[in-house]
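notes to self, project folder thing:

trying the whole complex as one job this time. last attempt i did each chain seperately and stitching them together was a nightmare. two parts in total, labels are on each line so i dont mix them up again. if this works i'll redo the older ones the same way
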Amino acid sequence: MRTPIAAFIVLSGILFSIGTVGVLVRRNALLIFMSVELQLNAVNIALVAFSRMRGSLDGQVLAFFSMVVAAAEVVVGLAIIVSVYRRRQSIDVDEARSLKW
Amino acid sequence: MPLDNVVFWIFAPISVASAIAMLTRRNAVHAALFLVVNFFTVAVFFLILEAPFLFAVQIIVYAGAIMVLFLFVIMLLGVDREESLRERIIAQRPVAIGLGLAMAAEVFFAVRAGIGFARHAPEGFDAVNAGGNTQALARVLFRTYFFPFEVTSILLIIAAIATMVLASNKTRSITRAEAAEAAAAAEAGDDPMQDAR
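result (full assembly):
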């Protein structure tokens, strides 16, 4: 393998930053959620790259766990978005600023 | 030029471009499709990094299950609504983009100071993957990380129950004040259930 490990880590950092900007800029709750998924994926790249660099499988196991947690998080998050939409007929996060409605 | 280098430099720009495209689409369905492209490129990076099991899991779980769930919810909530572009906090967008660039630069310099750009992964990962990556991963997972693996199953059950509770369309229970109000309205001759809903 001739690709330097740093290339993967920097790519992971770039994708993570794009995800961060998405969370800060977008107002649609679904788009914010997709940006969070992008961040989780970026971290997974870094974990697998470090696993390759260290020559051990621990990083891959951690990436696997992070995928499982991401799946659980998506399911719960989308259910929350659906229930917020039912209440307010909107998934704009600026609309949902009161704690109780 | 070695093959993995070629594949990386083909897929890295696709990955970044699809991520930026996802960010700039106003239509949620288009954004979701660009995110699928991004997930596939991430799967290719896993393959380059000699993690074929995670490559398969990435495609099945992310590009398959999670994105179908996303598209399902987008369709459920209506695709025709577009978000307003009016900024409600002053200069939110430029500041956010500036902070994002600063974060990318920070990672770049941290990597340069830390592991350096010339460092290559050591050869001999085949020995770690002896007997196949899936088998080797299973050995680590079920020996070293057995307890976290079991905790994960509890997490998934909790998530499934939480989703059912959150998304169930049950009617709200009526408070005592509302019941009294409904009874008063019934005495006045109105429809008693009109306000209670």
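what i see at first glance: Helices of chain A lie at 5-25, 29-54, 58-88.
need to look closer tmrw
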